[in-house]
């Protein structure tokens, strides 16, 4: 008995009984990003990784792998690789994961989110509301951990031919899209000729002129890429938005202490503010610029329209009548994809967006 008590005390002293042994942390965690490190999306990932390193005193060392390099360019394989653990973290676009998670097509419904008086409030309302919870559940059902939101932004059209004022102006235009099915449907409905090309090869496609245009967010992608080098027309139509999902492989997430999980969540919330400010800069009431100033992270371009014009781009900002025409032309896409996404989720999103206006 005495011997047993002594053994028990010794065990308690070395902490065997008092604290569960922590799984060893990896020396480096890989965070995947599809576009370049200099894109808004890449900057957001680096911001998160730096915050985490700092706030965990280096216990969690995240390295950003931009350019879809962890999936050999095939952007729609990312979710699979996070699930398998080949990728530890991803700041992922809903677009790239929606082939596997149908619900994530929600914000790609054409002229859906921006069809509200304040399109950014509408986006936030989805993320903060019932529909956002449903999206997170759908993502986590695949076995990955959702940590927080980011934002690539509303996707605008850039073309070498133009300007585009009505669907007929897009007739037969070869437009690069990613290989996600809803895009083929949208651009086919508008009379264009969509070409599915991975982002990793898209820029070469612009250089060689094998496509007449593409669509991507203005601040995060188009400006950082200097899209005016190839495309002289910018169509500001906000036809859909691309929120980002900060996620982790479940086993990796479970291996972190509760304290470190809380730090990761906290850093994700900071990253969301930064990522949204980068995406919305120049398109809101000035609050994004104020925020970026407060964290000392103002990017080179703060007035995107002025910059694009200076670079020789012709900008068409859609009027309400133009939106109506494009809305009508894409009705069949919303009908088909509402069924794929789930009517309940689409209704919940409509209610969330309406309540926030
Ligand atoms: O492929 C694209 O257009 C990009 C970079 O925006 C995404 O990965 C969705």
UniProtKB/TrEMBL annotation:
Gene3D superfamilies in the record: Bacterial extracellular solute-binding protein, family 7
InterPro entries: DctP_fam, TRAP_DctP, TRAP_DctP_sf
Family: Belongs to the bacterial solute-binding protein 7 family.
Key word Phosphoprotein present: no
GO biological process assignments: transmembrane transport
Domain of life: Bacteria
Organism: Mailhella massiliensis
Protein name: DctP family TRAP transporter solute-binding subunit
Keyword flag Signal: yes
Signal peptide segment: 1-23
Subcellular location field: Cell envelope
A GO cellular-component term linked to this record: outer membrane-bounded periplasmic space
Keyword terms, alphabetized: Signal, Transport
NCBIfam families: TRAP_S1
